[in-house]
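Slide 14.
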Amino acid sequence: MPRNRPRALRVTPERPPRSLRRIRGLSGRTASAIAQWEATTGLLGTSPGMTTLAWESYRAFTSRSGTTVRYPRPETCGAPTCALDDVRHARDLLEQALVRLPRPAGAELRRLLAPLDDAYLRITLPDPFARHGPYRNRAWWWHRLTQPY
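Slide 15: predicted structure.
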């Protein structure tokens, strides 16, 4: 009768839950830093996996083929995952991660985010009234024209 391996008998401490998906192109160390930040942050609407969902939303908006102008769409419901339908909220969450992650992890995420920011500026139009409207104190990605009604 085979005996149990010592590893099977040891009690291991609980680890923070891993998100099901990872941002493609990030190292394991950065993905771990993001998972730890998501598990310990007290920000409203931040839960494990939300950074990956925000990344996917922002990447999907900026990587569509074609040369037509695109408009960020305002969120339609109040749930935290619905807020990511508006790419501006998704970019806000990514910026929060950039600011709060350790410096090497933030730099790695910023390198992946830079081409998407360039594409966002290229495919959206500036809002000439943004400096005087309700978004005047917001980041630059809020100063683009939204979907016309």
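Speaker note: The longest helix spans residues 103-123.
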